[in-house]
Amino acid sequence: MKISSKLSTLTGILLALSVLITSTITLVIMYRELSQQAVQMQESRMKTFWELAGQKGKEFSLTDGKLMIGDYPVNDNFELPDKVKEICGGTATIFMGNTRVSTNVMKPDGSRAVGTKLQGAAFDAVIAQGNKYRGEAKILGVPYYTAYDPIKNAQGETIGVLYVGVKKSDYFTSFYRLVWIVAIVALICVAIAVALSAWSVRSQLRGLGDVAHVMEDVAQGNLTVRLDAGSGTNEVERVAVSVNTMLNDMGRALR
Predict the structure, then answer these.
(1) Residues 6 or more apart whose Cβ sits within 8 Å of residue 129
(2) Taking the C-alpha atoms of 96, 100, 105 and 110 in order, what is their torsion angle to the nearest 10 degrees?
(3) Contact indicator for 150, 128 with CB cutoff of 8 Å
(4) CA-CA distance, 215 to 247, in Å (whole number)?
(5) What is the tens place of the pLDDT at every residue in 131-159?
(6) Could you give the dihedral angle defined by the CA atoms of residues 131, 135, 138 and 144, in that order, rounded to the nearest 10 degrees?
């Protein structure tokens, strides 16, 4: 490879690595920040859910195998989850025990996921221990950012769960679009920078090839060749001046 080609290739590699490292670090930091925001956003959704539930009654209870808020029946009544979605977006569910009895979470067939069970870390924290749960959880096998609060009766017993959440893939749709935009823009910028660098390097070193050709001619006994030294302002042009001076001296010595 010519020196200019080597320098251009090295420049391209260094530029690509710099852009890759910078973009990756930036996107990773942004991803983490968005993840934290997603979890925090569930707090406001949960607060809204509790306020809507509080408008229906003062206490939760189990009556004749059904979950009640005062005298408001929850089972197969989708008013509250749908209202939460209307106000805040995302999904919402009311569990009786660990069973969904009111939800806007949909199954793949388009029906509501009534009757499905709460599982995993959220079940352990809320049903088994009576604590809140915040974080990622899978719902019907799909990752969500979630918040779960225990529903307690007048005796302080956990009889159900309030849930709010947002599908992880939906929340990061804009982020993934940004990743593609950054990748495309980075590739274009690297390509332009490499092209400009290659042009600049070759322009600066173009005279070096001429020097090589002249020295080959001199080695074959041709002392009449001369180089275009330009203004002699850079290293290559100064080499050309020196070569021309040497050839002139050699020519005079031979005469």
Answers:
(1) none
(2) -150
(3) no
(4) 10
(5) 999 988 888 888 888 999 999 998 999 99
(6) 130
The per-residue pLDDT for 162 is 96
Query: At residue 47, what is the residue type?
Result: K
In whole angstroms, give the CA distance from residue 196 to residue 192: 6
Identify whether the C-beta of residue 167 lies closer than 8 Å to the C-beta of residue 142.
Answer: yes
Whether the Cβ atoms of residue 116 and residue 102 lie closer than 8 Å to each other? no
How many CB atoms are located within 10 Å of the residue 245 CB?
11
CA pair distance 184, 177, nearest whole angstrom:
11
Bridging pattern class, strands 91-96 and 158-167: antiparallel
Which of 131, 125, 119, 134 is CA-nearest to residue 35?
A: 134
Q: Which two tokens stand for residue 179?
A: 């990743």
| 149 phi/psi in degrees, rounded to 5 | -120, 140
Structure tokens at 90: 């995302």
